[in-house]
Design brief:
The structure is a single chain. With about 120 residues, this protein is α+β, with helices and mostly antiparallel strands. A six-stranded mixed β-barrel has the order 2-3-4-5-7-8. β3, α1 and β4 form a beta-alpha-beta unit. The radius of gyration is 15 Å and the shape is globular.
């Protein structure tokens, strides 16, 4: 299955847990069902023009538990669990930002310690 990313207006900001915390935009993946390589490339070029700087990461959904993948700036094919494992970075989760007397609100975090499959 071919995927590209949606525009920056559909992205979310998340902290990527790794060597410290890196705040980064997470693009939303768009499934291109039955798209030919030529059609997928056309969508990819259009999307690339909407971003000032291509994001490093993309997620399937803006929901907790969604897989986050490494984004290369080109349309991607994910046809098998092995394909997903090659580009898998982690899973989205929400957490609270603690304050002195409570919390300031929720923020997105990419949990890089998560496994590709929980089974």
């Amino acid at each position: 299955m071919r995927y590209t990313i949606d525009g920056p207006d559909m992205a979310l900001e998340a902290f990527v847990v790794g060597d410290g915390y890196e705040q980064s935009p997470i693009a939303t993946l768009v499934h291109l069902p039955d798209a030919s390589a030529k059609t997928a490339a056309m969508f990819g070029r259009h999307t690339a023009e909407t971003w000032d700087k291509q994001p490093k990461y993309a997620a399937f959904r803006a929901e907790p538990g969604s897989s986050v993948i490494r984004w290369s700036g080109k349309t991607i094919n994910i046809d098998s669990p092995e394909d997903l494992a090659k580009v898998f970075v982690g899973r989205l989760r929400q957490t609270h930002i603690p304050g002195e007397f409570g919390s300031y609100g929720k923020t997105w975090v990419v949990d890089t310690n998560a496994k590709v499959y929980d089974g």
